[in-house]
Amino acid sequence: MRDGVYLEQLSEASVLAALAAWGGGVAGDFHVLALVPEGERERVPLLQEACRQAGVVLAGGVFPQLLVDRELVGQGVVLLRIQGAPAPLLVEQVSRTEAVEPLAARLADYVESGLGEEEEGALFCIFDGLVPNISTHLDAWYLALADRVRYFGVNGGSESFTPMPCLFDGERCLADGVLLQLLPRHPGAFLEHCYGVPEQVITATSAQGNRIVQIDWQPALERYREIMARQYGVAIDRDNFYQHAVHFPFGILRADGEVLVRIPVGLDDKGAIVCVGEIPPYAVLTLLDARQCGDAAAALARDLAQEPGMAAEPLVLFYCAGRRMHLGSAAMAEEIGEVAQLTGHRRLLGALSLGEIGASARGGYPLFHNATLVGVPCLQP
After folding, report:
1. Tens digit of pLDDT for each residue in 290-315?
2. CA dist., res. 255 & res. 261, Å (int)
3. Where are the transmembrane segments (predicted)?
4. Which of 15, 177, 207, 284 is surrounded by the most beta carbons within 10 Å?
């Protein structure tokens, strides 16, 4: 992601002017990844038409809000210029079980055809945030590609978790899909959340996709309510569930010490707890206290300092919507400002995300996260 611009007005004229400044048209050697706020989703056809007129390949996603420097904005569009990379893939109907293996095979062909034999690269993805089997897809991708690429990505959609078309290319706008972009010679992204781990653990004794049906052999809501009352002094009911649950998400404890955050976002009719991201059956869980999370901005800045091209402008930054809901807008702005200050970036461009994807170690296994900051170095050619 080598260049970026924020357009305050999303119109054919403003997009055409930005593309012309980049040398769009037949002579252009780039395509565009666009980030659109939910409030502007009806203008995606204008964006598509402008790119068709300019002869520029387009792909992108709709997010709750855009991140521009230290502020969240609900209008306009962020355009990221992608150079020296193959055209993106937009795949629909990925929530079907029978879609997992064919997509992994198609992805392997896409990567192998787009990278030289010894060339390194990264794979960036945007999922519809309502796809319930993202972790299953990531497992299949790793089986097909292993460490051939560095994996990172985010989820788009509505912060209300209302189904809507949130992924697009030059012709289509769809839901239940994933957008895939291979980035040759790109180092990938860095993810941080800095949640501490309490000593008490529980078990998801029954889980179906992104729904926890039972905890410790009890109905999930009943057991969650009991733990919240005893451990944190918080009384939970159906009406206030999300208001409190965002501050006390689940943590999946992995054998390697990694903690995967799962933010509960609702309850189904039978009392199962619905999360952003899959919960493996019999997963060892804990309830995290978001008030006790560490300095993720400093940790992210340390990570980014390892990357030689990190100082190039802008830094692409995605920020979890659940983290914002817990911290509040003022604290979120302070955290983002700390990232800018510690990394020396004058420009930050990105979006509010509904789940994040990355590896716990550089070049490692792709995992699905919540509550993270995702920093993407924007390398110069």
Report:
1. 776 656 767 777 777 776 666 667 88
2. 15
3. none
4. 15
